[in-house]
Amino acid sequence: MKQYVIDELRPPDHEKIKQYLDEHVGPAEMGNLYWIPVDTSLYTEVQASHTDCHPLYFAVQLCETSIVAELLVRTKNRVRCDCICYANDEQFLWLIHYMNAIFERLEIMA
């Protein structure tokens, strides 16, 4: 699995990130898994046409010392579909900017 990883989080950083994600994307599912909705303006043509699969997400796992974002754009509605694919360049950059913005807002140096 392709992933974007930020590691060496300190316990206070973990708590700040957890609180932020709980408030902004909803509580974690399956323990420490968050679903970050992909901006709809970034959907590919195929993704945009699969309205039954919307919304699309990046799965993000918040661990004690790291935060791991899968680079697979996925839906909660299906396990397999043509719209589920690795992030294109725009989606990948959007995710990195999204994660960096969280760290900046929370004043976390990583």
Distance between the termini: 23 Å
- Rg estimate, integer Å: 14 Å
Distinct helical segment count: 3
> Which shape, going by the Cα principal axes?
elongated
Q: Determine the mean pLDDT.
A: 95
> Strand tally, please?
5
Q: Sheet bearing the most strands, described?
A: 5 strands, antiparallel
Helix proportion of residues, in percent? 25-40%
Order of helices and strands: EHEHEEEH
Provide the domain count: 1
Please mark out the parts with pLDDT under 50 across 5 or more consecutive residues, or reply none: none
Kindly estimate the percentage of residues that lie in beta strands according to DSSP.
Answer: 25-35%
Query: Which class of secondary structure composition applies to the elements?
Result: alpha+beta
Produce a short descriptive summary.
By secondary structure, the protein is of the alpha+beta class.
Layout of helices and strands, plus pairs?
Layout: E1 3-7, H1 11-25, E2 33-37, H2 45-49, E3 56-62, E4 66-75, E5 85-86, H3 89-105
Antiparallel strand pairs: 1-4, 2-3, 3-4, 4-5
Structure description:
The protein is α+β, with helices and mostly antiparallel strands and 110 residues long. It has one domain. The protein has helices at residues 11-25, 45-49, 89-105; strands at 3-7, 33-37, 56-62, 66-75, 85-86. Strands 1, 2, 3, 4 and 5 form a five-stranded antiparallel β-sheet that branches. Strand 3 (56-62) and strand 4 form a beta hairpin. The model has no long low-confidence stretch (mean pLDDT 95).
Considering the chains and any ligands shown, give keywords for the structure:
110 residues; alpha+beta; five-stranded antiparallel beta sheet; 5 strands; 26% strand
